[in-house]
Every structure is written in structure tokens, then in C-alpha cells.
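does this look right to u?? iron/sulfur cluster version
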Amino acid sequence: MKTETKEISKCGLYCNNCGKFKSGKCPGCEKNVKATWCKTRICCIENGYSSCADCTMTNPRECKKFSNFITDVFSTIFRSDRPASIEYIKKHGSEAFINLMIDQNRMVIKK
Ligand code: SF4
Ligand code: SF4
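got this back:
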């Protein structure tokens, strides 16, 4: 299995397990140039980070670009914990995260 960090979104999602990615409706975070609304994506690109796991300024649980009211609502509805995914990538590396998501058939660590 080919494992590239490009398969992981800036905010810690494993794009390859996303329905929209699989159906060709979304090219994945890296190539999703239409996502101009996303402050996380812009911040990572401006700083040359593969994802927020590379961030040396703050962390997703405290960063206002990463977490806001809307993302908190989505996180509760979908029981997703993107900050936990970023923490996992920081600790174990992107390849280990991808393997975990493949094993669990998920795109983000569960809340
Ligand atoms: S929310 Fe932003 S960083 Fe996360 S996958 Fe979408 S475009 Fe990428
Ligand atoms: S945690 Fe916040 S400041 Fe750090 S790279 Fe992500 S969006 Fe940017």
C-alpha cells in the first residue's frame, strides 16, 4: 500500500477513506484549491506544513484557525476528533496514522 502524507488533510483526516474522495467529488485536501474558506489549509500551506502536526506555533485544541463553533458542532455530530488525529500523527508519524485508519476503516480518530 502506497502511503503518502498527501493522503492526509491539513487538519488530520485520512482523505482516501472519505466518500467524496472515493467518488471523485473531492480531489483531497491537498489539491482542493476551492477550499479558500478553510483557514487551517491556508495556514499550513503558508507555513509549508504537511499538516498541523508540523506546527510549532500552537496546537489544534487551542488554535482558533483549527477549532471554532462550526467545527465543534461537526465534531460532535460525526463523533470525530481531528485534534486527536493530529496528536497521533505527531507522536507516531503519518504512516502509522494511515495504517490505523485503514485498519479501522475510518478517516479520523473517533471522539
Ligand atoms: S477542513 Fe480544511 S484542512 Fe480539513 S480537509 Fe477540509 S480543506 Fe482540508
Ligand atoms: S494548528 Fe493552527 S496555527 Fe498551527 S498549522 Fe494548524 S491552523 Fe496553523
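The pocket of iron/sulfur cluster (ligand 2) is lined by residues 40, 43-44, 47, 49, 52, 55, 57-58, 60, 63, 65-66 (CB under 6 Å). idk if thats expected tbh
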